[in-house]
Amino acid sequence: MPRNTDQVLTVAAMRAAEQALIDAGASVESLMEMAGHGAGAYVHRVAGGRAVTILCGPGNNGGDGYVIARHLFERDVPVRVIAALPPKTRAALAARAAFAGPIIDGVPPKLPRGDVFVDCLFGSGLTRAVDADLFAMLSALFDRHHHRIAIDLPSGIESDSGAVLNPGLPAFDLTISLGAWKHAHFAMPSTALMGALRLIDIGCAAQGDAAGVLQRPRLGIPAPDAHKYRRGLLAIVGGAMPGATLLSASAARHAGAGYLRLIAGADPGPVPYDLVIVRETPAQALGDGRVAAVLVGPGLGRDPGARERLGAALAAGLPTVVDADGLVLLRPGQCAGAPMVLTPHEGELAALERAFGLRGEGVKHERALRLAAATGAVVLAKGPDSVIAAPDGRLILAPRASSWLSVAGTGDVLAGIVASRLAVHKDALRAACEGVWLHSEAAQLAGPAFAATDLAEWVPQAVRACL
């Protein structure tokens, strides 16, 4: 079966994937060897010959720790294992027996110090907090080492939800996932504690209904015979607050669309020369058959006039991005027909759930999937752990974004990028994925302490990275 190293698996799906490998002839021990040696190579590079302490638990995550220890020991890296609890699985017992280096059983009277600490206490599958004594030892070892690495997941994290089961869990420098990505690697609050993320492939087959990790998009250059309409005419429906609308337009100008029109709802003041201002009503302006996509919401307002402008934008039946105030005003029956992207933050997501009769239960990606099914739109639930859900059940998880994006106006920039990409090709899911990736890349390129206007200026460099 084809493999997929970009899939994100639940605990149950990961167990099924491992069982499929075993059914095909692998053994638990051979899979542990593959995972442990792969992780050991990362630890070896971090250690650089310095002392390593590995905390092993009773299950197969602890077994992975013993294999990592053997990998280091055989390469003359000073390594010691603390066996917090004795191994309980056959594979972990075999891995411990194969390690010829020093092992400290239980809680030592004096915890060692070193350069690198490796947490192999508990991996995925944990559903309750780590016992107080074990957690105290983990935290103390963390404090006594300069570099901290978690294997599969930091102990104290629930894999499927990303919940932090132990308050005060320290933040690691590196987390090495084994076999496949887990939802906790991309969900807040857990992802904030994991540092850099790396994956060890053990050959898991693609699971048909698995979520995927957002990938760098491939953007083409305009065709030799391209002109502004073929590249996509984006109409932006403005409202009472033109500042947010202009932020969206500034980003859209750089993200691929060939022509921008602002259907102004208020005097926008000075605008770039290439942004065409239209004084017609949305119903009139969107009747132009050359319009490829519409953005409505940033700066729209929430008064009766805003509702009317939103209704006219949606009634045009064009590929549409709805953001900001448009999300608060959106109601059932307005989403049918053309491709659509909804871009809610947490508060707007809750407002949409109320409007569409959803209870708002579960973790973020589950809520986004239910809203996508209810609306028929692609839902980009944005934030430090953005998720993209399609009505057909496809789910894309974005790596955590730069925390410098936590400034006013960056959501308007994201909406403009997504709408510009939608105007180029009219594929809602693709536009949402491209928009999130370009937005995050622009933030990385912009560096620290940027404003939303600065962020928009880095979009061309983000596009360049995808050509």
Radius of gyration: 25 Å
Category from helices, strands and their pairing: alpha/beta
Which consecutive residue ranges, at least 5 long each, have pLDDT under 50? none
Helix content: 25-40%
Looking across the biggest beta sheet, what order are the strands in? 8-1-10-19-18-17-16-15-14-11-12-13
Overview of the structural elements:
The chain contains 15 helices and 19 strands. The chain folds into two domains: 207 residues, Rossmann fold; 232 residues, Ribokinase (UDP-N-acetylmuramoyl-L-alanine:D-glutamate ligase), CATH 3.40.1190. The model has no long low-confidence stretch (mean pLDDT 95). Strand 17 and strand 18 form a beta hairpin. It has 467 residues and is of the alpha/beta class. The strands form two sheets. A twelve-stranded mixed β-sheet has the order 8-1-10-19-18-17-16-15-14-11-12-13, with helices on both faces. It has a seven-stranded parallel β-sheet with strand order 4-3-2-5-6-7-9, with helices on both faces. 52% of the residues are buried.
For this entry, give a set of tags:
2 domains, 7-stranded parallel sheet, UDP-N-acetylmuramoyl-L-alanine:D-glutamate ligase, Rossmann fold, alpha/beta, 467 residues, 15 helices
